[in-house]
Amino acid sequence: MRYQISGKQIDIGDALQTHVKAELGAAVQKYAGRPTDATVVFSKSGHEFVCEATVHLSTGLTASAKAHDTEIYAAFDGCCEKMEKQLRRYKRRLKDHHKERVEPVELLGASSYILASESDSDAQEPETLQPMIIAEMQTKIATLSVGEAVMQMELGGAPVLVFRKEGKEGLNVVYRREDGNIGWIDPA
Length: 188
Description:
The chain is an alpha+beta fold. The protein contains three helices and nine strands.
């Protein structure tokens, strides 16, 4: 597994990097067979250290966790516990489905945009009706079953997930509804 361990305006020493590789590697290997890479970022927020970790698996799942504490090692340990809990739930759900994916998830390239929102409710009429694009980036759209898409959306903490349904051509969307249920859009 490839590790990318960095700090935002924090010096990350060799001892912390060794600790991260050992602990995160053990947690991921326990519940996931083929992790591809992990990204761990440490930062400081006020008097607390913040640890954000993202692990990509060969099945297409992206698990992420975030924790903060007054000590940097405690922040990582909290983040690692959350990651381990997510992966344990993921593995339990895979066993419940009694279905093993033989091949890795197929991914398609797509563009992702972040549009500026109108922050002032009393704002004047804009000069143009075109929204201002703040960020433009490339993303990948996975080919998943509906159950796998819901699982990936929940584990990633996302409110919406766009995916291709296995055996179909068009795009599908799963999203969290205001009543707490999951909605699924399957165009005909």
